[in-house]
Design goal:
Elements lengths: L14 E9 L5 E10 L6 E4 L3 H13 L7 H10 L4 H8 L3 H8 L9 H13 L8 H6 L12 E2 L6 E2 L4
Helix pairs in contact: 1-2, 1-5, 2-5, 3-4
This protein binds zinc ion.
Length: about 170
């Protein structure tokens, strides 16, 4: 017990309080009843937030259901939650990395296009972070049709499956 409540900096016993905590940069998110530890000797403080991945999933889904347009900090949160660099996110949406920076900047941000915003909301709602959206396959749709073949389906063994070309 004492070990968990000792100051990492000076070893003094930390004071524990619980209360609402504003979470994230540029987000309008408050978490109820968060434990905050503060050292009365040196002022070092720490915030105890368990199950961070689950928390991020919960926040991402809540943000993606908020009314009104997404704000820059929300776009940034959802992008990083989904595991995209701004370069990959730009490639996924078919825009330039500069455009992504303009969506996410806090001063005079550029409004995200509606189609892109709805796609981001859907990904946040239904996707899992680190799940691989096949970015290379997505990018191929931008390119030439080289190697494009008919979609071939086979119905053997009682279920429809994508098959090798006949
Ligand atoms: Zn201390």
């Amino acid at each position: 017990m004492n070990k968990g409540t000792s100051c990492l900096e000076c070893g003094a016993v930390m004071e524990i309080t619980r209360g609402p905590y504003r979470y994230g940069r540029g987000l309008d998110v408050v978490i109820h009843d968060v434990e905050t530890r503060r050292c009365p000797e040196c002022g070092h403080d720490e915030v105890v937030i368990p199950r961070i991945e689950e928390l991020h999933r919960t926040i991402a889904r809540a943000i993606s259901r908020r009314p009104g347009r997404l704000e820059p900090g929300e776009i940034r949160f959802l992008r990083t939650y989904l595991g995209y660099s701004s370069v990959d996110f730009a490639a996924l949406l078919g825009v330039t990395p500069e455009t992504v920076s303009r969506w996410e900047r806090t001063s005079k941000p550029q409004q995200m296009g509606k189609v892109a915003e709805r796609l981001l909301r859907m990904l946040a709602q239904y996707g899992e972070p680190d799940q691989i959206y096949d970015l290379e396959a997505v990018l191929l749709t931008d390119g030439e049709a080289r190697g494009k073949r008919p979609v071939t389906i086979a119905g053997s063994a009682g279920s429809w499956k994508v098959a090798e070309a006949c």
